[in-house]
Amino acid sequence: MKVEELMTRDVRACGRYDSLNSAAHIMWEHDCGCVPVVDAERHVVGVVTDRDVCMAAYTQGQPLAAMLVNAAMAKDVATCTPEDSVAGAEAIMKARQVRRLPVVDAAGRLVGLLSFNDIARHAARERKTRGKRAIAADEIVHTLGAICEPAGTTSRQATAA
Predict the structure, then answer these.
(1) Does residue 13 contact residue 23 with C-beta atoms inside 8 Å?
(2) Distance between CA 79 and CA 29 in Å, rounded?
(3) Where residue 46 sits, what CATH number does that domain have?
(4) Residue 19 in 3-state DSSP?
(5) How many domains does the chain have?
(6) Is 113 helix (H, G, I), strand (E, B) or coil?
(7) Which of 79, 147, 138, 139 has its CA nearest to residue 113?
(8) pLDDT averaged over the chain?
(9) Ramachandran region of residue 8, left (φ > 0), alpha (ψ -120 to 50) or beta?
(10) What are the C-alpha distances in Å from 42 to residues 9, 15, 24, 109?
(11) Confidence label for 16 from pLDDT (cuts 50, 70 and 90)
(12) DSSP structure class, residue 79
């Protein structure tokens, strides 16, 4: 199965010099927890999450309207392409401990967003309607476990704790 079959295509984005208030507004209006950050040509240059917005507000003590997306966004962004396999995208999510991947074309321009929720919902629908599974339940659990692993903790440390 390919990413293009599950990704959200109509993705709202913001610019790095937009206010965090603007990014939060997009999240509120479109019921999403992540907004890709793009340049003028829609090349992905970062990602800002609802957690990033909250932590910036807390640590900087300024109104969201006074802070720029650039100050809170993740700049080292993992992406995938529409042609990538969902299994490959899951592997990236596991390795990078992220729940969402911007989907980019060959030139790096934003064309969609794939979330772990998209994958899990698809697996649940398949199981309910067809009884067959292109995405196995144990793969979903393994991916979620890897994503949720505390940062800086190895699997061995987490098991010992």
Answers:
(1) no
(2) 24
(3) 3.10.580.10
(4) strand
(5) 1
(6) strand
(7) 79
(8) 85
(9) beta
(10) 14, 9, 19, 5
(11) very high
(12) -
- Per residue in 26-79, pLDDT tens? 999 999 999 999 999 999 999 999 999 999 999 999 999 999 999 999 999 999
DSSP-assigned beta bridge partners for residue 50: none
* Amino acid code (one letter) for 153: T
CA angle 116, 119, 122 (to 5 degrees): 145
pLDDT of residue 123: 79
94 Cβ contact partners less than 8 Å away, ≥ 6 residues apart = 142, 143, 146, 147
The secondary element (H helix, E strand) that includes residue 71 is helix 69-72
Of the two residues 106 and 124, the one the predictor is more confident about is: 106
Cα–Cα distance, 146 to 94 (Å, whole number): 5
Cβ neighbours of 148 (radius 10 Å): 10
Place of tokens 């321009």: 109
How far is Cα 146 from Cα 143, in angstroms, rounded to an integer? 5
Angle between helix 50-60 and 20-30 (nearest 10): 140
Q: Which domain holds residue 76?
A: 3-160
Contacting residues for 6 by C-beta, under 8 A, at least 6 apart = 86, 114, 118, 119, 122
**Which residue type occupies 118?**
D
Could you please report the per-residue DSSP string of 89-137? HHHHHHHHT-SEEEEE-TTSBEEEEEEHHHHHHHHHHHHHHTS--SS-H
